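quick one, six chains, predict together pls
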Amino acid sequence: MIHITRRERFNAAHRLFRADYSDEKNNEVFGKCSNPNWHGHNYELFVTVKGDINNETGFLINLKVLSKIIKTNVINKLDHKNINLEVDFMKGKLASTENLAVSIWNELEDNVNVLGAELHCVKVVESENNFIEYYG
Amino acid sequence: MIHITRRERFNAAHRLFRADYSDEKNNEVFGKCSNPNWHGHNYELFVTVKGDINNETGFLINLKVLSKIIKTNVINKLDHKNINLEVDFMKGKLASTENLAVSIWNELEDNVNVLGAELHCVKVVESENNFIEYYG
Amino acid sequence: MIHITRRERFNAAHRLFRADYSDEKNNEVFGKCSNPNWHGHNYELFVTVKGDINNETGFLINLKVLSKIIKTNVINKLDHKNINLEVDFMKGKLASTENLAVSIWNELEDNVNVLGAELHCVKVVESENNFIEYYG
Amino acid sequence: MIHITRRERFNAAHRLFRADYSDEKNNEVFGKCSNPNWHGHNYELFVTVKGDINNETGFLINLKVLSKIIKTNVINKLDHKNINLEVDFMKGKLASTENLAVSIWNELEDNVNVLGAELHCVKVVESENNFIEYYG
Amino acid sequence: MIHITRRERFNAAHRLFRADYSDEKNNEVFGKCSNPNWHGHNYELFVTVKGDINNETGFLINLKVLSKIIKTNVINKLDHKNINLEVDFMKGKLASTENLAVSIWNELEDNVNVLGAELHCVKVVESENNFIEYYG
Amino acid sequence: MIHITRRERFNAAHRLFRADYSDEKNNEVFGKCSNPNWHGHNYELFVTVKGDINNETGFLINLKVLSKIIKTNVINKLDHKNINLEVDFMKGKLASTENLAVSIWNELEDNVNVLGAELHCVKVVESENNFIEYYG
């Protein structure tokens, strides 16, 4: 059993708020992250998959294929987008990094399984000081 | 003569577009950076000042003072903001990193001069692959 | 279950030695880290907590609260200090990064539990080539 | 139980290919990594060992000793070498990062055990976007 | 006048040696970098251009265009290649990072001028400890 | 003319204070950096030299020789030392990063000249947020 990790990146705008909260309440709970005019981040996404090495290729998984799966299912939907308004798999969810990591996992899991590997971890880095890891 | 550099960071949303361009033209010139729903970045700002070492303190400039000047005049106006809509010193300008660097220089120059030092460079890092430097 | 990590930093002086060792023995066991005049590091501290996402906020834990807990209980006691002489929770212990990681865990565990989350890992990075992880 | 990680680095040339594949097949499976004239990388190697803290020294393991073991058994055999042609422990294996990580584990395991610690993870970073982890 | 920098990356094999030197002399002058079986690096290339901001676009230069120029003229010729054997603009030159930086400058200068900007610096990073800058 | 930069690192303890200041005054001017029990840093030192490429070797300067000069004259005197108490070239000077950069320049200038190159810049990085550059 071996683990391989691929890093991809995306830039996006988002806002943390609840429509059923007053502006005051949103500000109290989410602080400046609730700014109605949005703010944004350079996100880093680390996707780790695990499985056995294929003796013929020496690979667990072809990294080009893994990269393409991540781009098609996740990056192309998030990059240079507004997470609250434009990302189908985040519709109706609070645009927190926690929810983002879980939703990215759900987008990737089946697509990784098809390759004969197993999704192990989705890590989303929001800034040099904060990151989320989800193991399913 | 010595150079000292202080790094500060801010997260912001922005959009590249011209109101006098059609959507098509905006997309042609600015690509996905023209997304009407905004996107964003973790920006890094490196401010370099130069001057002589003060023999009494061994400092060119007190870094806490420099940091406070940058935060008061620049970071607090940009962090968790929408550069197009909310930043007084970017009003009426295209929200490019080039214009951002020049505008930050203008906000800082007099405030650094007052400290007996000279502003040397404003560097704005938009992503790990792109950055702008302005020397006045 | 999700994991969230917060990075904080501190600069400190320390020395590795045993009072019951001769200078020669200290030098043999601890090398230049036993210098009686101290040396120091820029330490990075990564604190990982785990738990369930709060459906109302989309958070596992409010990062501002977590950051405040780490600063109050750990960073303020270590930053710009001498680990051997001035840090209450390191009194009587060898100032190794291993002992530092365990002691930081002990300072944080109860304070994290109160927030409804669980402390998962304390990682202390001493240099770009060396780091310690403690999982309790 | 505590974990300590040491980073070492090496630069090497390699090529991914099978002698029993045609050039076309090699190119199809391994892409530009199959270039017969070789290419290369700055590899980073992170070796994590685990065990109990020695109360007398405050160490899990003396990092100088760990570093020496890694250099003698791994780095000196890989640094500025051709992985396919010159590295004894890679002879007859596809020079993938996956196989490299497993082979490095095998070179280190007994040498770490002798020190009274246990090898926990070998992580090989091939580029800023790709890395492999092997846990035995 | 403003400066903009674009980073691109390439992986390549190379060897430092002179055909008119004996093996001993090559080893004496170039050390393990003269290994006849090659070694390699992850190179980082930072290309800085300077000029005036275009008032209509807020850009000095369109970064996508700059990136394409660098990829077409430099990266595609170097990435996953053997610098000594396969790179037209390095033919007959010692494959040192110094010569690489000068040669990359020569490949880029006219192509940047055509865009109405001026090439300012080519920086080639060979490892985290070594880099070359060439200003023409 | 080409520029080459070598990075070296050292860990050291220091304190900012004046013996002719009261404790209160030292605290007012130097803040927590004046702690009488010392603190410390992982310093990074970037030494840039410039000159012409030697046509026979393709080098501006042999990096191993440059590294040895930096280690002999600077790193070995600073690493795991107390800058205020133990470093000959800092005796009688305030242990600021500014003074450190100038003093390191003075230690290196003649030694670089002997190699047929010219010292261009000494950059001392004290933390990820602060660094000093000295150009002589």
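Chain E has a mean pLDDT of 97.
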